[in-house]
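User: Here's a protein and a ligand (pantoate). What would the complex look like?
Assistant: Let me lay out the input and then the predicted complex.
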Amino acid sequence: MKVVHTIEELRDQLRGQTRAAFVPTMGNLHAGHLALMRSARQYGDPVVASIFVNRLQFGPNEDFDQYPRSLMEDIEKLERARDVYVLFAPNEKELYPEPQTYRVLPPQDLGGILEGEYRPGFFEGVCTVVLKLMSCVQPQVAVFGKKDYQQLMVVRSMCRQFQLPVEIVAHETVRDSDGLALSSRNAYLSEKDRATAPMLYQSLTQTRDALLKGATDIASLEGAASAELDRNGWKVDYFSVRRQRDLLAPTLDEVRAGEPLVILTAAKLGNTRLIDNLEV
Ligand code: PAF
């Protein structure tokens, strides 16, 4: 694997390549990231990954400074897995040599809801860096995890509207054996909170099962799941059943007619904010 830190080196490595498959990350790689890179091999060649902790997508009171950075360990993991041909790991000066005053502003109806409501500026930061990374790598395909469901949809709609010649592929969420979705932020959980954390996925599966059995009162399902999480020490930002196609709330008629749905949640356990989702 070639590790490059500058855009010039990256372009040298990728000269003449037209079928690259790209997996952008913020590093601190876990089995979920490695699964994205493994699956990227079936969509293109070479596989290019990036590691860049993007300041623009963190709010002023968020964990940019504490975000786990482990480039050497990440490189070792990638070397062992042998799926990635080029790792692009720029520093901030390389990707943001001057203040990033041109930004991508996602539409409010998709980027301003759910995560966008609780993390103002988050999707603007994500879209801006993803657009820059895409312009550096120029992949044919990029793979994103469904764990960040709304991010996947925002990025996909940005690429479509800017007519970027890249296909966005969704990869299933990778979970621990107890159901907890793998995330770099799981490293923040205390031992006690780690034991409670699988509850988030359990509440999603219970709600999905109720919907599959024919429940149609979305508000009461959402309320019951949030209350149960609250009782167990979580601070719930949202627990919401939405339409898969645009993340808007379904009407009763749509629920009854079998509209494809997705349940999305974000909740804090101690100081750690976890997100998860489940398609119905
Ligand atoms: O999902 C992530 O790790 C980040 O949001 C991404 C897509 C790499 C952009 O910084």
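Summary: Residues 242 and 248 are 5 Å apart (CA to CA).
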